UniProtKB/TrEMBL annotation:
<keyword id="KW-0479">Metal-binding</keyword>
<dbReference type="InterPro" id="IPR002935">
    <property type="entry name" value="SAM_O-MeTrfase"/>
</dbReference>
<protein>
    <recommendedName>
        <fullName>Caffeoyl-CoA O-methyltransferase</fullName>
        <ecNumber>2.1.1.104</ecNumber>
    </recommendedName>
</protein>
<dbReference type="GO" id="GO:0046872">
    <property type="term" value="F:metal ion binding"/>
</dbReference>
<keyword id="KW-0489">Methyltransferase</keyword>
<dbReference type="GO" id="GO:0008757">
    <property type="term" value="F:S-adenosylmethionine-dependent methyltransferase activity"/>
</dbReference>
<dbReference type="GO" id="GO:0032259">
    <property type="term" value="P:methylation"/>
</dbReference>
<keyword id="KW-0808">Transferase</keyword>
<comment type="similarity">
    <text>Belongs to the class I-like SAM-binding methyltransferase superfamily. Cation-dependent O-methyltransferase family.</text>
</comment>
<keyword id="KW-0949">S-adenosyl-L-methionine</keyword>
<dbReference type="GO" id="GO:0007623">
    <property type="term" value="P:circadian rhythm"/>
</dbReference>
<dbReference type="Pfam" id="PF01596">
    <property type="entry name" value="Methyltransf_3"/>
</dbReference>
<keyword id="KW-0438">Lignin biosynthesis</keyword>
<dbReference type="GO" id="GO:0042409">
    <property type="term" value="F:caffeoyl-CoA O-methyltransferase activity"/>
</dbReference>
<dbReference type="InterPro" id="IPR029063">
    <property type="entry name" value="SAM-dependent_MTases_sf"/>
</dbReference>
<comment type="pathway">
    <text>Aromatic compound metabolism; phenylpropanoid biosynthesis.</text>
</comment>
<dbReference type="InterPro" id="IPR050362">
    <property type="entry name" value="Cation-dep_OMT"/>
</dbReference>
Length: 244
């Protein structure tokens, strides 16, 4: 059923629409009332540059960027990690939230896309907080797990990369995040496909990653080392607070 105020086909049925809200009008209301007017100028600029990129579907949405920025301030995060940078929207929202001496270890297999956002990040005066490493995240995480100095050293870790590796990441990140620190897994509601009937016409990549996301959600719900909260912000974000 169409939501009040909607006459057009619902955008939430389109792949890549960045909200699971069933009312596009309500999502637009949130963006226009609470998000865009408070969005820092560099984030707006980066969002607009990213919108022109052919893979713009991958970017973190503005409402999620705002959420991350506030969350980082609420937990007084200083030392953070991000897996999956793309052009850097969530990275910039993190960098702007951290104190002057805050740090982000930013991992991505693709430096080219990061360089699209880098001039804006530099202009915003926060590039010094970022240590970007190009390459697959898993081997680097293994190296860090082998070094006890990294254990319990991160206040916040945001994971927004290859969904088929999320459980592999979790096995390692649980040692690297500090007790009381938070890991945020993005896309944990995966376009709403998690509850689609088996014969639903899903895009190939949505269908492929769906099983990994389902497995991750089950594993996180059963993991007694963390408290969790799954939020329907963006494409779903699950926060895990390490408790032991
Ligand atoms: C959804 S995008 C990240 C979006 C980003 N957080 C933002 O705010 O725009 C996913 C990113 O994960 C990266 N990626 C995919 N597999 C990876 C891996 N094994 N290790 C590190 N990064 C990876 C991709 O290159 C891509 O840039």
């Amino acid at each position: 059923m169409a939501a009040i105020g909607e006459t057009q086909p619902a955008k939430h049925q389109e792949v890549g629409h960045k909200s699971l809200l069933q009312s596009d009008a309500l999502y637009q209301y949130i963006l226009e009332t609470s998000v865009y007017p408070r969005e820092p100028q560099p984030m707006k600029e980066l969002r607009e540059v990213t919108a022109k990129h052919p893979w713009n579907l991958m970017t973190t949405s503005a409402d999620e960027g705002q959420f991350l920025n506030l969350l980082l301030k609420l937990i007084n995060a200083k030392n953070t990690m991000e897996i999956g940078v793309y052009t850097g929207y969530s990275l910039l929202s993190t960098a702007l939230a951290l104190p002057e001496d805050g740090k982000i270890l930013a991992l991505d297999i693709n430096r080219e896309n990061y360089e699209i956002g880098l001039p804006i990040i530099e202009k915003a005066g926060v590039a010094h907080k970022i240590d970007f490493r190009e390459g697959p995240a898993l081997p680097l995480l293994d190296q860090m797990v082998d070094d006890v100095n990294f254990h319990g050293s991160f206040d916040f870790i945001f994971v927004d990369a290859d969904k088929d590796n999320y459980l592999n990441y979790h096995k390692r990140l649980i040692d690297l995040v500090k007790i009381g620190g938070v890991i945020g897994y993005d896309n944990t509601l995966w376009n709403g496909s998690l509850v689609a009937p088996p014969d639903a016409p899903l895009r190939k990549y949505v269908r492929y990653y769906r099983d990994f996301v389902l497995e991750l959600n089950k594993a996180l719900a059963a993991d007694t080392r963390v408290e969790i909260c799954q939020l329907p912000v963006g494409d779903g974000i699950t926060l895990c607070r390490r408790i032991c």
